[in-house]
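Annotators were shown the component list below and the corresponding predicted structure, then asked to write short factual statements about the assembly.
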Amino acid sequence: MSFVQLLIDATALGALLALVAMGIALVFGVMRLVNFAYGELITVGAYTLVLTKGWPIVLRVLAAFVVVIASSLLMEVIFRPLRRATAATMLVATFALSFLLQNMFLFIFGPQGETIEFLAPLNRAIEIGDLRIRWITIIAIALGAVLLGFMSWLLGKTSVGLQMRAAAADFTTARILGVRAGRVIMLAFVLSGFLAAAVTLVLAVQRPLATPNYGFVVLVPALVGVVVGGLGKLVPATLGGFAIGFATVVLGDLLPSGSRVFLNSVLFAIVIIVLLVRPDGLFTGRTGVAERV
Amino acid sequence: MSRVLLELDHVSVSYGSVPAVRDLSLEVAPGEVVGLVGSNGAGKSTTLAAIMGVHRLAAGDIKFEGISIAKEQPDAIARRGVALVPEGRHIYPDFTVEDNLRLGLLGRSTREGADRDLEWVRRLFPAIADSSKRMAGLLSGGQQQQLAIARALVSDPRVLLLDEPSLGLAPSVVDTLFDALAEIRDKGVAILLVEQRAQLTVAFADRTHVLRNGDLVLTLGPEDVVDTDRMTQAYFG
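Structure shown to annotators:
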């Protein structure tokens, strides 16, 4: 694989995992909740596309956004009684929800998987010299750039973004100043649902078979990315997601073909080393720890 | 308008089974300065946090403008016109000074007059006006305290709750701070002032309550500042 080809493919997966990481970090920021069930939002999106086969594309996209965002809001309602619970309690609760949902999908749709049949022609590649770039790769990178740009505008330039950042940095002080806690938390779930729906649409093209653990397999590397980048802050967490996606593709290329099965082992070994050297995350600055109060 | 702005009526607050404030009653009238002094652990900060809705009451009631706020959330209490400057300032170090001030505006019941109040705090604390684009964490301790107070003031509060505003500040900076507090009082904002510096507080406040282990044990007026015995009690709670 040429270097440029590698770079493009790595960026595409990086962009996708960056979006997932940001979705996780948004909710963590305002609730200190690591939502293990976040992957199931992506699965819900995939099954929505399965169930709307035959509908016009625009309606299917709309349905995916509506159902995934509604599911995210439902999760907010489910986690609401846990707002004052310890981090461990919340973590276990989201784990439980994740497995409950996966088994529900298993029960309803069965283990074989359902074909999604969503915009399959986007898997065709355009050839520029010896480069072969699939349309969906270009879309993934563009979508990642647009959504990350939009989120950074929203959080950096608007009043509601300022409130979310304040709530993420110091929740009690934010409330004392008049930030409506319930509203900010709800908005975080809406935005993270929006990101999950966007990720679903790209994944549905790349991986056209919906299975009960469809989103979970994406959540795990993204979550690792969030921890590697720095859990408490949005930008480092997002960069962490990108880094994991990028590294996965690059490592996959570097490893000899017979050793690809060890890809995850090598990746996680690097993660462990990174966390040993920088326990607060790879991309956190000096104040990273102080802010995570 | 009620004659009493803020009223604590037999308030008790506990941390688990440990009582932090016991049966505390006090009143703050509009435009009045009330001091709260006592040694560490006397229950001063807990009292302010309870007024702000951060701690729930074990017993008693807190009324603001005659309405019970004991069960309200902190953000709702803020919008009613209560502003807390917490101990340790709790400014956002990674946000600009400007963004810290913008957060203060959230506590307003209306945007009307916001520009006027921003103008006022910038005049009151010129150091803040000069560094609006800087990260708040880069300000000196005294400037950070000024920013915390300015942030509370732009919420247009009827009562300002100040938790140890002079902590860690050089004496000259403390003087500047109390000059600003005098101007805030003169604008008609009531102040409930928690302080370690008893002498300064007793001299400044209309009356000062002394707390010891969660109990109100003594109330002093400005004239008591020359009474050594009573001041000794104030210092040692």
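Statements collected:
1. Strands of chain A lie at 114-115, 125-128, 131-134, 209-210.
2. Residues 3-216 of chain A form one domain.
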